[in-house]
Design a protein that fits this description.
The complex is a heterodimer.
Chain A: E1 7-16, E2 19-29, E3 34-38, H1 45-53, E4 60-65, E5 68-70, H2 75-81, E6 83-86, H3 98-102, E7 109-110, E8 113-114, H4 116-129, H5 147-159, E9 165-169, H6 177-192, E10 196-200, H7 204-210, E11 213-218, E12 221-227, H8 233-242
Parallel strand pairs in A: 3-10, 3-11, 6-9, 9-10
Antiparallel strand pairs in A: 1-2, 1-4, 4-5, 7-8, 11-12
Chain B: H1 22-35, H2 42-58, H3 65-90, H4 98-112, H5 123-148, H6 152-174, E1 177-178, H7 182-189, H8 194-218, H9 229-252, E2 254-255, E3 258-259, H10 264-282, H11 284-294, H12 296-301, H13 306-332, E4 334-335, H14 344-354, H15 366-385, H16 390-418
Antiparallel strand pairs in B: 1-4, 2-3
The chains are: A alpha/beta, B mainly alpha.
Chain lengths: ~260, ~425
Amino acid sequence: MSDSPLLQLRGITKTFGSVEALTDVDFEVRAGEVMALVGDNGAGKSTLIKCVAGIHPPDSGQIFFEGGEVHIHGPKDAARLGIEVVYQDLALCDNLDVVQNMYLGRESNRFQILNEAAMEHTTAATLESLAVTTISSIRQPVATLSGGQRQSVAVAKAVQWNSKLVILDEPTAALGVAQTEQVLALVRRLGEQGLAVVIISHNLHDIFETADRITVLRLGRTVGVFERRATTQQAVVEAITYGAPVKVSGIPAAPEAGGEG
Amino acid sequence: MTSVDVAGPGGPAPGDAVELRGIAGLYQRALFNLRTGNLGPAPIIIGEVLVVALFGFTATNFFTAVNFTNLINEMVGTAILAYGVVFVLLLGEIDLSIGYLAGIGALIVAELQLPGSGHQLNGILAMVIAIAACAAIGGVQGSIVAFVGVPSFVVTLGGFLIWQGVILNKLEQRGTIIIQDRWINYTDSYAFSHFAGFLIAAIITALYPLSVLYKRVAARGTEIARVNWGAFAVKLVGIAVASFGTVAIANHGRVIATSLGLPLSGVIVIFFAILLTFLAKWTTFGRHVYAVGGNAEAARRAGINVPRIRVLVFMISGATAGLGGIIFASQVNSVALTFPPGNLLLNAIASAVIGGVSLFGGRGEVRGALLGAVLIGTLQNGLNTLNVSNGWIYIITGLVLLGAVTLDTVAVRLQARSGR
């Protein structure tokens, strides 16, 4: 694990009309670490990752990636940096097959004519490297896949592009117990492979099984950053519920953000 | 990375059938397609055979070579419009302006070829300008949909009224504009020599095995390169019978002393079917159209420029409307106030929908629109030769449309049930 953060956000503010979704938020994640992003509904978790993904560029604040300041104006900018997001609703096209979804928006082509063979070979290789074996045909529409299979396609899609940072929005929300365990194992493995992983979840049990650090948002502000090994679920719950805003400047977490031990 | 199995339950995924070969594989695949709501062109081809058989037995003038070429000339314009409708429907949008936009295309061509008008142009140039103008109009309508966010139903309903008004203003005083330019009139009246007709049939028949061969070679070792030879044989024979049969019957036709042949319009309709299928299935643009229609938000997040796709699709719709309009005008060598003929707009949309293009976006193919137009054309032509009243023709067309959409809806529900 390197010490300098791969992604660092400073003073991110984002408003929608009169609603201030994010106020002066700081956030960071290092390569090889799994950073959990938690908070109650409406805390601004999704908005924050959308700022990073280029879906909603922030109104003010700075984004640093690999030490340099970057401006992310769209999903393509984020992809170019090596940032991939797996959304809660998976962002898959049900009518397209697995290969077509894996290459959505960046189809392999020559003079705009699709190179289906190359795309199919790479997709098969990626799924194999992730040991996703239950999909019988990668040419079947995603609509015919089970929830777990869809999740694996979405994760594989994110990993395929030599990404440096993978953001997972509620990856286990729709899954049963066994599949949840498998997805969490995959998340840990992504971290072990040297990727920076941000995982958003409501489920503190999941978080404590996978994350190295935990950032808590409340009402659009950062209220704490916790080392997983040095904290308890109780402390994190208190931060989610009552936490007061803090300015984050690296680790360890600001201790005033809850009475953690 | 070691074994991390993140795939969930849901039983064995359907698709095992892909492995099977031969007749058994064909049967398995048909069952799989039925189960997943992917009916393909089978129902409509069966419907077409039934309709032809029915009229063959009941209508005395239906089974003549002359009526056959008439049928081709009648359905071509509708089919071309329906191709554009396919792209619009793939996005989950609608274009109600195409009927009168076809009229605008015909009007521009008629105006530009007018001898002694001071701005007379070569017929081919006039057609290019007319189609480009219709594409531009489609682009404007599409821009309002894509950038402003006005529903396409409203924008194109506005277009429907506006272009109807323009045609009224232009033709109310003038009455009819006669089209004399032979190039324009050729689009619906030129017939190939018997030999050329068979040559074209051979080329069209050869295209299918060539495309399969190309996939086998270019995509070696992938699933798309896998061929079910049973299905291949059935399709190849079907295409050969259809194209050679069409030419043979057309060559047989004789009006007084002139021998007929394969109409150019028939070749135009096939040419654009192939061209637009290529665009939809083999290019990044086509892939993005399907993606936007399937899940516009996913497409946007994947970095696809969704407004650009929308505008381009409405431009295609405008261009095909213009071309279809020119073909309709050349059918009667003129543009009159009665243009566009009959229920052009609704026939075009019905053709695409009967051909299996979903109104909810993301599902359908160009060939479906061709088959749908052939079915509607045959139905209406056959009922005409039976001297059935227009009222009944509308009622029967409506029932066929209703039946096709019901089938489509049931298919979609089957597909939803087979997943997850």
